[in-house]
Design goal:
Elements (H helix, E strand, L loop, with lengths): L19 H9 L21 E4 L2 H12 L4 H15 L9 E8 L4 E7 L22 H6 L9 H12 L9 H9 L1 E2 L2 H7 L9 H7 L12 E2 L2 H13 L2 H4 L1 H11 L10 H6 L3 E4 L1 E5 L2 E5 L6 H11 L11 H21 L10 H4 L2 H8 L32 E7 L5 E7 L9 E2 L2 E2 L36 E5 L4 E6 L6 H14 L4 H6 L3 E4 L2 E4 L6 H9 L16 E6 L2 E6 L6 E3 L2
Antiparallel strand pairs: 1-9, 1-19, 2-3, 2-10, 3-6, 4-5, 7-8, 8-13, 9-10, 11-12, 13-14, 14-17, 15-16, 17-18
């Protein structure tokens, strides 16, 4: 039940990340009711720092860290810890993340991979039922089989060990305070708690979101989560070991093994989890350099979409019929390739270099004719093997944040529990992820060709998360942006980048542009946000916009540099803000 329990504060213990050596080795080898968005431009002469995230309480947690002299990574730790409390339908301690980091001193961009991993015992038919057929999606999500070893906290510890200034133990105070003292339930959390997602009906979710009078929490109700406060105190004292070993790890394993359809995640799987760090995947785009994480993130797909659009004159057609036509056709080509070839490069050959080869991008762009093709097939990039058509069904439960600190360092981070409230199973105050349902349920086609995103023990599932950082040709920071949205993340991010870089819109205006997701033969869109003239013009070109695609709405957040200082943007479709200290 949602209730108040007084907790004794644990004495903080100095923590040194166990991932520092791993980070060095890796570097050397080198994702409700909408509220009005609030954006802010830092006044001229003010410190160049800002936080943009999906909840004002989380933004304030990050700003407190920045005011105390913390770096962008320090603040990101505080933001994530708070989002996991006030936005548990989207991300949390039990989930995973991708983080792109810009070092202002070296002008280098590093990608951190905190994607969850499948248990070592997992097989390609993880989500097959007793009848020998793939489970339906709801059954799989609610099962213990859906949960992978969580990576967000370990990834943040790795990044903070490299780029933090404050002590790790001092980054969780705001999340702990809110969990202990209580916070006003945000509209989106309350709506999700009473929503139709099956996870909202699990015993754990019902117990957490039901008030003593038997009714569900409403927006503005005070929510206390003393178990979460105790968990973040333990993480503050011990680092990610607190989550991946000991009492909390045992609770995770026990919860995953509950029926029906128990999972095989083990204590050994949790203890063995390691985040990854490597040079970000960067490619030129007109006068800019755009950097994202590599596979299995959605970064390569976004870069391919940009690469295709660079062959067109979309920059000359801002928010017009021709501009949206080109955007939609490049999107279809991007999705076709992503769906066929993307997977975990530690397990399958992913032809990233072939997909981003200028000659291949030009070849794909030539497929964009004056009218849309009836269907779009994946291409044959250099290095591509024979892959089965993908049958992955991504769902939505993700958030994005951006932080810039006073030194000019930047974090762009997309973080997730996968579906709304993850698997709906809760331990120690937080929900477990259902990230493994991001794998393809069908491991091969009728001819035995393997799917790039098939399940395997220790493998990371394919993701659409693609936190982006944009530089100029001198590698100075220009902008950072990203979004949640399940498979639509690719289109949301591509839209924002086109809006800023091609159509020269302020970041808030680029975020506010209507969303259009084009893949296969569908054109899902926010139809009511397109003008009648645009809608009619696109239909005359052979594009019928439809609503009700079913994907999560965007939650774009971004920060850009202007001559007057930093300028932030927050998606009006959510509850976020962008603020300077």
């Amino acid at each position: 039940m949602v209730k108040s329990v007084v907790q004794e504060r644990a004495r903080p213990v100095k923590f040194k990340s166990p991932f520092a050596a791993l980070a060095l080795a890796a570097l050397l080898s080198a994702c409700a009711t909408p509220q009005p968005a609030v954006s802010e431009t830092a006044p001229a002469g003010a410190p160049g720092a800002m936080v943009a995230a999906a909840n004002p309480m989380a933004v304030e947690a990050g700003l407190k860290v920045l005011r105390a002299g913390g770096t962008a990574v320090d603040a990101a730790v505080a933001v994530q810890a708070t989002l996991g409390l006030v936005e548990p339908q989207s991300s949390g301690l039990g989930g995973g993340a991708f983080l792109t980091y810009y070092d202002a001193r070296t002008k280098q961009v590093t990608a951190y991979n905190g994607r969850e991993t499948a248990p070592k015992a997992a097989t390609p038919k993880l989500f097959y039922g007793e009848d020998g057929k793939p489970m339906n999606r709801t059954t799989a999500i609610l099962s213990g089989r859906s949960t992978g070893a969580p990576g967000a906290v370990a990834m943040l510890a790795l990044a903070q060990s490299q780029h933090g200034k404050l002590a790790w133990k001092d980054l969780f105070g705001e999340a702990e305070r809110l969990a202990d003292e209580g916070f006003a339930a945000p509209r989106r959390m309350a709506a999700a708690a009473s929503g139709r997602a099956p996870q909202a009906g699990t015993p754990d979710a019902i117990a957490y979101f039901t008030k003593p009078d038997g009714t569900k929490i409403q927006a503005g109700d005070t929510v206390r989560n003393p178990a979460y406060a105790a968990t973040v105190r333990k993480i503050a004292a011990e680092g990610p070991k607190a989550l991946l070993e000991g009492e909390i790890a045992q609770a995770i394993v026990a919860k995953v093994k509950e029926g029906p359809n128990p999972g095989e995640l083990s204590l050994e799987d949790l203890k063995a989890y390691r985040p990854k760090a490597e040079a970000a995947l960067c490619r030129p785009y007109r006068a800019y350099i755009v950097c994202t994480p590599g596979a299995p993130s959605g970064g390569p797909a976004v870069l391919e979409g940009l690469g295709i659009l660079e062959q067109t004159d979309i920059a000359k057609h801002p928010n017009s019929v021709e501009g949206w036509y080109l955007f939609s056709q490049a999107s279809r080509l991007m999705y076709a390739d992503r769906d066929r070839y993307m997977g975990d490069p530690d397990f399958v050959d992913v032809p990233v270099q072939g997909l981003l080869d200028p000659a291949y991008l030009a070849e794909r762009a030539r497929l964009i004719g004056p009218s849309p093709a009836a269907s779009v097939a994946p291409g044959s990039p250099r290095g591509a093997g024979v892959r089965a058509p993908d049958r992955t069904q991504e769902v939505s439960g993700t958030t994005h944040l951006v932080v810039v600190d006073r030194w000019g360092n930047v974090v762009s981070m997309t973080t997730t529990v996968e579906s709304t409230f993850g698997s709906g199973r809760m331990v120690h105050g937080f929900f477990l992820n259902n990230q493994l349902t991001d794998f393809s349920f069908n491991p091969e086609d009728r001819d035995g060709a393997p799917a790039a995103n098939a399940v395997a023990g220790g493998k990371r599932p394919r993701s659409s998360m693609a936190p982006a950082i944009v530089l100029d040709k001198n590698r100075r920071f220009v902008a950072a942006v990203g979004s949640p949205g399940g498979p639509s993340i690719l289109a949301y991010n591509l839209k924002a980048l086109v809006g800023m870089l091609d159509w020269k819109l302020p970041v808030q205006d680029a975020i506010n542009l209507p969303n259009l997701i084009a893949g296969g033969s569908f054109y899902a869109a926010e139809v009511d946000k397109f003008s009648p003239e645009l809608t009619a013009g696109l239909e005359a070109r052979g594009i019928k916009l439809t609503s009700g695609f079913g994907a999560e709405g965007s939650g774009l957040h971004g920060i850009e540099v202007t001559p007057q200082g930093l300028r932030g943007g927050a998606d009006p479709r959510r509850e976020g803000v962008a603020k300077a200290p």
